Amino acid sequence: MARWNEGYVADVAYTSQFYREMTPAWLSMAAVLLGHRPPDLARPFRWAELGCGNGFTATVVAAACPHAEVWAFDFNPAHIETARLLASRAGLGNVTYREASFADLASAPDAALPEFDFIVAHGVYSWIAPEHRRQVVSFVRQRLRPGGLFYNSYNDAVGWASMVPLRELMRLVTSTSGARSDLAVGQIATLTERLTEGQAQFFAANPSIERRVKMLRTHDARYLAHEYLNEHWHPQMAADVMAEMEEAKCSFIGSATLTDNIDATSIPPAMRSLMNETQDVALRETLRDFAGAQSFRRDIYRRGVTGLATGEHLDLLDALTLIGLANPPRGEAGIEFSCQLGTVTGDRALYGSLLDALARGPLTLREARAMPGWVGKPLTELLQAFALLVSGGFAHPVMPGGAAGEAVASCRALNRAIARMNADGTSIANLVSPVVGSAIPANLTETLVVGELLEGRDARPEQLADNLVAILARTGRKVQKDGAAVTDPGEVHRLTAERVNATLGTGAEFLRALAIVD
Asked: I need a surface site. Which of 111, 473, 494, 506 has the fewest CB within 10 A?
């Protein structure tokens, strides 16, 4: 008898995660930096997600881009129900969630679905059978409009090579235990610990596995079940994925992990001469994967690659606008950024001038080019600086028209819905901003305080602290300090008030700048 899940984990739902790299503003900036014309975000556009899980990223895009038509597909009815619930509570009318398999989508009549400007698939391609990958490619071939972008993230075989036998052991443990997938993760963790304690030489021979083994105890078991326990688990070589995407008339243009597009942040210096000798795109990307022991790729493909006139490209670059999100420490050596090679350091004066400008408000690349210190510098250095600031989470591209009334209203409606669901016991760790067309990380206190403010409740810190203590008590949650639950009522209220004051104090200006609150 056929199994509707076709070997994919379905006995536990996936976690509700947000992926910034899939948003239209992020993908458009990446395309411009890579020298390609993106879809026009100032006009109505269509965005679709394949394998949307609980649909949170699609819901964010729908709220932040009310002029867009958003579609999200997943074969698991539990995921679609969860996605529809949040969108309904936020009153979003521009998003459609559909329960459908990749086979359903690939065989749908032409009139059943429109063409899309963006198609995205996060963490799908290397977790499904080869026939399902072919169906994904077929859908992209049929539904991505010329000039549209396809985002495809997957496990890279280069970085996962040593993990393959351990993953097979995990599957064997799961099949023999008969336990639910998330519970099997605990059994796997115990077995792995006993193997290491027994000095199994496999781990000594593969020291890079240690970090992933520790994750078995520290990460959400539902996430780990979906990561490791699917029947089909096939980390891919980049060259193979590129060859498959040729069937959809799509060409690789670069990575949504912006630092992976920069040789200085993705290739050791001793390898750069080798890279310069290589013109073939597939070979270059494969060498780049070996250079950084890449384990996860976020590829961007374009349906049709045409030359972009120099003047048009410069206009698109000059129009790139960033808004500041954080101000990193400025050491004597400079400002550090994480990348595939570890960390790189940006010049303290040059990068500091950009951060100072961002602290005053949005900054266009045209304005940055005219700043002291950057005048006369090669444009590529400034583009690299923009990419590093965004990739590091210190800045974000601005969504055209993001502060318009309709986008502000729909984002605030979604933030109210997030706060209500968190008040009921869920754990959505994001707030949505129309200015960036995306979501930002937020802790539980921040989401609840924003919800209280948007509901028009008493904004006095003491009253907000009282409200939050009552909310947490109703759902049986404990205030945590240093990883331990606080039991003293006075200390609970003091800590809650302290966190409320932080949100209303240093965090308030940030929330206002992103139009999350007034």
From this structure: 111
| Virtual torsion, Cα 89, 92, 95, 96, nearest 10 deg | 50
Q: How many structural domains are present in the chain?
A: 3
Q: Write out pLDDT tens, residues 432-452.
A: 999 999 999 999 999 999 999
Pick the closest to residue 61 from 72, 50, 73, 74 (CA basis): 72
Quote the CA–CA distance of 162 and 138 in Å, as a whole number.
32
Residue 380 tokens, joined: 């590529």
**Mean pLDDT, to the nearest integer, of 23-46?**
97
441 and 458: one domain? yes
CA atoms of 512 and 28, how far apart (whole Å): 25
**What six digits make up the tokens of 278?**
């290589």
Query: Encoding tokens for residue 8?
Result: 């994919």
120 inside domain: no
CA atoms within 13 A on the CB side of 235: 19
The reported pLDDT for the residue numbered 119 is 98
Give the domain-ending residue among 222, 241, 264: 222
Residue type, 233: W
Residue 508 has pLDDT above 60, yes or no: yes
Task: Name which of 250, 54, 233, 73 is nearest 151 in CA terms.
Answer: 250
Question: In the predicted model, what is the mean pLDDT of residues 441-467?
Answer: 93
Concatenated DSSP letters for 349-405?
A: HHHHHHHHHHHHS-EEHHHHHTSTTTTTS-HHHHHHHHHHHHHTTSEEEPPTTTTSH
The answer, as to whether pTM is greater than 0.85, is: yes
Same domain, 365 and 448: no
Q: How far apart are the first and last CA of the chain?
A: 57
pLDDT digits (tens, 9 = 90+) for 214-261: 888 888 888 888 888 888 999 999 999 999 999 999 999 999 999 999
The pLDDT value given to residue 9: 84
Distance CA 377, CA 379 (A): 6
Rama region for 278: left / alpha / beta (φ>0; ψ in -120 to 50; rest): beta
Range of the domain at 366: 318-397
363 and 429 in one domain? Answer: no
Question: What amino acid is encoded at 436 in this protein?
Answer: V
Instruction: Report the DSSP pairing between strands 430-433 and 438-441.
Output: antiparallel
Maximum Cα–Cα distance across the chain: 70
CA distances 158 to 146, 216, 278, Å, are 32, 21, 19
CATH code at 368?
1.10.10
pLDDT of amino acid 301: 98
Are 424 and 333 within one domain?
no
Q: How far apart are CA 238 and CA 47, in angstroms?
A: 24
Q: At what angle do helices 221-228 and 181-197 cross, to 10 degrees?
A: 80
Encoded tokens for 438: 């995306």
Q: Are 518 and 450 in contact (CB under 8 A)?
A: no
